[in-house]
Amino acid sequence: MTTIHRLSVDDAQGARAWDAFVDTCPQATFFHKSGWQHVIRENFKHETYFYFAEVNGQVAGVLPLANVTSLLFGKSLVSLPFAVYGGVAANDESVAAALAEEAQRLARRLKVAHLEFRNIAQIGNDWPVQDLYVTFRKAIVGDDEANLQAIPRKQRAMVRKGIKAGLTSAIESDVDAFFALYADNVHRHGTPAFAKKYFQSLARRFGQDCDILLVRDAQHTPLSGVLSFYFRDEVLPYYAGDAVAARAVAANDFKYWELMRHAAARRVRVFDFGRSKRGTGSFDFKKNWGFEPTPLHYQYCLYQRDSIPQNNPSNKKFRLLIETWKKMPIQLANLIGPHIVRGLG
Length: 345
What we know:
Elements: E1 2-6, H1 12-24, H2 35-44, E2 47-55, E3 58-70, E4 74-79, E5 89-90, H3 93-110, E6 114-119, E7 129-130, E8 133-139, H4 144-149, H5 153-164, E9 168-172, H6 175-188, H7 196-206, E10 210-216, E11 222-231, E12 234-242, H8 251-265, E13 270-277, H9 281-288, E14 293-295, E15 297-302, H10 319-327, H11 330-341
Parallel strand pairs: 4-6, 12-13
Antiparallel strand pairs: 1-2, 2-3, 3-4, 3-5, 6-15, 7-15, 8-13, 8-14, 9-10, 10-11, 11-12
Helix pairs in contact: 2-7, 5-8
């Protein structure tokens, strides 16, 4: 018999059982970890509903959810906001179905416009599917030269350009240096930045499963940085930023090569380049590294809307806002950005 429970934010024993299941469930991802409940509540003030299913007293499935309220986009129930993966992770279809049904009951009770599961693989129902996003994953080995040779020739030349420029990399705890690169980068792209305390929260909550790699030039000036997540034998570079000067010495390319080397030394065997939208520069960049796209199956249960929401920069109606944001002084953008981004999810 399957029973559904809600994980309390102060239930340390329940969180350990949750994470023990996530560590072994094939459908689970880094974004199914219980720590996200604290990160989302602390940084964005969204109410979380982390449901788990028990069969014979053992955890058999999990579903992390958050209720996102946005002035721009209304109310939604998402698994999981600020994450590229989510949805149900369960031992079998009946458990997965029970968790999905619980989510639908909650969505109706909260009167949200839609319920969203950010699935890697499509679940067995008739919910509409968003096919805008793909993910890029590739196996790596414990040998640096073999990994380098697996990179296509033109992209490999960019890596060597960074090496010849005398760039260096290191895993650092300097959130300030990383944040400066990240915030400047997203501002140039017309996107509001998360608050610095969000990155501090990630580092604190996930410990060794989250690190920051910084690339510096010969004068020790930070040029490029990436905050990555580690899950089982996988690494996922998740937030990144580059200075304007990074392009001339291929610091961005060098950064991902150095992350690959660092991860391989940690016995990581899958490099997850993460989510990209089709037809974007990041999509092309990852393909140039020899990664092949795999479609993501974001599924929606619609309640107070007729179609899948398009809350992303590719939507033409946001073009003016993006161009306006680029022209805003970065100090002002960093001040008001966190208030906007909390509603984007």
